[in-house]
Design goal:
The complex is a heterodimer of chains A (340) and B (120).
Chain A lengths: L4 H16 L8 E4 L19 H4 L5 H11 L3 E4 L10 H10 L3 E6 L4 H6 L9 E6 L4 H7 L5 H14 L3 E8 L5 H14 L3 E6 L15 H12 L12 H7 L14 E3 L2 E5 L4 E5 L2 H7 L20 H14 L1 H13 L3
Parallel strand pairs in A: 1-2, 1-7, 2-3, 3-4, 4-5, 5-6
Antiparallel strand pairs in A: 7-8, 8-9
Chain B lengths: L19 H10 L4 E5 L4 E10 L6 E6 L6 E4 L3 E5 L11 H14 L7 H5 L1
Antiparallel strand pairs in B: 1-2, 1-5, 2-3, 3-4
The chains are: A alpha/beta (340), B alpha+beta (120).
Chain lengths: 340, 120
């Protein structure tokens, strides 16, 4: 598992502080979508199907930073849409670095090289590009519905690493994923020099074009068990080992929908990053007025039945690390042996 | 009634089971602009991005067709909603994507990715 020590310490001390103050609902990562506009239209994405006037909207920089200040999470994931198309992306990242937040800028990297050449960003231990890579060349291009994207993205990754930036990848897997191909992909990313990889099964967005290839729970367990069986020593993941165990079916968790809250041009999304059932004006209002008992596996809500996405369960896994001696021991053991 | 996959162009008549609350739920889930008819007969066109029925004065929120907003409208002041804008989530099935990909391969012409490209 690979997360810089300073980041690990920041997150660990934050979670411990929440637990010591007996705070039951707290955010771990703010998911920020400063725009919906994207330069791709991936088959498994349900985030960008809006009328033109909505796609044209860019969040005010002050609102983005205020959302961060309000929720107080130690980490932020800037998503979208394609965040590199956000006109004030440089200022946004700078403002977040000043706040000492750990930033993952999720990008398809199609315009990353161009942005690097414009010197919009400065390398920082707080800042990482999280490049969307869904597999080996053929699988990635198929997933994002455009040929040539794998090559553009890998070239941009090389350039970013060369310039001293932290670079991670984020990978969404569907039921078309072939374990051997995914393992080959891990090798490719490690050879490229990425710091670590993040994995998640896709969520069956109601508005996504492709409804046929989302994974059901049993399929997710089988797929991730095959992929992560005997992991190579050099594979690095920037995720809780307990979350990876959960994907493999070795842990049974309940969702923590408020753990990675989403803020976008509509407000704070209820109840989570994936389901879109309304918006609150503030994070406080989101916490206090969302009927949380209606969501998660236990609720029997069919929309939650097969969801095993990191935005709901990574926070649960991190919390589990600090909730009991067993959780802590399992995390330490998996970290030491490098195997979830 | 049009089914949920074919709401575009639908102008539901409010009566019986088709309450304004039901139409608002459908409109909230719709990824296109709608025309909202207020009790005073005036109309506003926009994208409904929020609805909250669990408060003392239930409301919806919209961005109008120029992107201004958000504007809040009380549900009690809405008479009807028509699904007048293009549903941006319709016609985007995986099968449609595969057909589009094949067409692009044959013609070499890229087709619009989204509403912005369609507009351009």
């Amino acid at each position: 598992m690979s997360v810089p020590a300073s980041q690990m310490w920041t997150v660990a001390s934050y979670v411990l502080r929440q637990r010591l103050t007996r705070k039951k609902q707290y955010p771990l990562v703010l998911m920020l979508e400063p725009l919906f506009k994207c330069n791709l239209a991936c088959a498994g994405c349900g985030k960008i199907q809006y009328p033109a006037q909505v796609l044209k909207k860019n969040m005010l920089l002050e609102k983005a930073l205020a959302a961060m200040d309000e929720c107080g999470a130690p980490m932020i994931s800037i998503a979208g849409g394609e965040p590199l198309l956000y006109p004030q992306i440089g200022e946004l990242v700078e403002g977040l670095v000043e706040r000492r937040k750990y930033i993952y800028l999720c990008t398809n990297a199609l315009v990353l090289k161009e942005k690097l050449e414009q010197h919009i960003f400065k390398p920082s231990k707080y800042f990482s590009f999280s490049v969307h890579m869904d597999g080996i060349r053929e699988d990635h291009d198929e997933s994002v519905c455009r040929d040539g994207t794998y090559d553009i993205a890998t070239e941009a990754i090389r350039e970013a690493i060369k310039r001293g930036f932290r670079v991670t990848t984020n990978t969404t897997l569907f039921n078309t994923a072939q374990p051997l191909n995914v393992r080959e992909f891990f090798d490719e990313m490690m050879d490229l020099g990425v710091e670590a990889m993040m994995l998640s099964p896709g969520y069956s967005y109601a508005k996504a074009p492709d409804q046929q290839h989302f994974l059901h729970k049993g399929e997710t367990n089988k797929l991730f068990s095959e992929i992560l069986l005997n992991p190579k020593k050099n594979w690095k993941f920037n995720q809780s080992p307990l979350f990876l165990q959960f994907l493999m079916g070795k842990q049974d968790y309940e969702c923590t929908p408020w753990g990675m809250p989403l803020y976008n041009n509509f407000g704070w999304q209820r109840p989570c990053y994936l389901l879109q059932e309304g918006y609150a004006e503030t994070y406080k209002e989101l916490l206090e007025t969302t009927p949380w008992e209606q969501y998660g596996k236990k609720s029997g809500n069919p929309k939650c039945a097969d969801c095993m996405v990191h935005s709901g369960y990574e926070a649960t896994a991190v919390n589990a690390t600090f909730a009991s001696f067993k959780g802590f021991k399992d995390t330490v053991a998996a970290t030491i042996r490098g195997k979830p | 009634m049009a089914d949920e996959k074919g709401l575009q162009g639908w102008a539901p008549v409010i009566s019986g089971d088709m309450t304004i609350e039901r139409v608002i739920d459908l409109a909230f889930d719709y990824r296109g602009n709608t025309t909202i008819v207020k009790s005073d007969g005036t109309e506003v066109v926009g994208y409904i991005f929020n609805r909250n029925k669990g408060v003392a004065e239930p409301f919806i929120q919209i961005f109008d067709e120029k992107g201004n907003g958000p504007f809040t409208l009380l549900i009690s002041q809405i008479q009807a909603i028509r699904f007048t804008g293009k549903d941006m989530a319709a016609g985007n099935s995986y099968a449609a994507y595969m057909e589009r990909k094949q067409r692009q391969k044959e013609t070499g012409i890229a087709e619009p990715l989204n509403a912005l490209e369609e507009e351009a």
